[in-house]
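Holo prediction — 6-O-phosphono-alpha-D-fructofuranose.
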Amino acid sequence: MRRVTLTQFLIEQQRAGRTTPELRLLIEVVARAVKAISVNVSKGALAGVLGEAGTDNVQGEAQKKLDVIANEILLQANEWGGHLAAMASEEVEEVHQIPFDYPKGGFLLLFDPLDGSSNIDVNISVGTIFSVLRNPEGDGEPTEQNFLQPGREQVAAGYALYGPSTQLILTVGDGVHGFTLDREMGSFIYTHPFMTVPNETQEFAINASNARYWEPPVQRYIAELQAGKSGPRGKDFNMRWVASMVADVHRILTRGGIFMYPMDEKCRDKGGKLRLMYEANPMAMIIEQAGGAATTGRERIMDLQPTKLHQRVPVVLGSAAEVERVTKYHLEG
Ligand code: P6P
């Protein structure tokens, strides 16, 4: 079969009117940054990049050295190309402005540079998540307000998974497409066209140690899954929890499932566990583009009007039939 590279794919998308040269450049720059992150992640202990950085991020979480390295790689790769108006990162409190001596473009790039980094030191898959918005018209430096757009305004979203192979999963609004890094060539090869989430599943992902904090609809839903064949669902379910959202979502994108980090009494005061702008929204776009569903348990994630750049939300996403059931249980009260 002819090997199609990410570049060829993007040029064909451009010819079909689904991307512009500027968006194509943005995605190619992010892909190059992801390759550099993959090199660092795969070196592990050999490159002295494991362990704590000795600093905390805006979330008050201890940063891993690779969190800081991945963040720097993405900021430096993207600031000179002329395709961005500004950037926002999980690792940085404020909007990252494009240095004055570089041209600006029409897009806003948001990212979690290394999601799941608590898994780094135990050699479990981690990932990078990114989201692309248009910068609203207007002069001057983009402010936080420019970024606070509902997820349905995203023009592209994707993630990289640093697993046994490094994969880049991408949507520009015309389905979900997967690429696998050929390390010898240094190219992303188009290996997974039009990925879709099966509507039904027998696999769920949730951190079950939080069970005592869950709201009643989640308690009810999980109890029914655990009751298995003899319970109300009439079939057995399996559970997976990698504690790396990218890895859990990728499994669901590949073979179905439901991923839940719901509202609970432990994270209620923060609004949830996962971040809306650079975790929930891009993953929601990908899952919906693949035929799945993504809600907070009560409303569609991509309809939420953001109020803060680093705000957190509850997340229920994956196989549509299951997400609809969980959402129904919440709305029934
Ligand atoms: P817990 C990783 O820190 C993360 O943000 C997601 O990637 C992951 O799904 C979740 O938090 C894991 O949370 O509470 O199980 O450690």
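READOUT: Helices lie at 6-15, 21-43, 65-78, 144-147, 216-227, 245-255, 276-289, 320-332.
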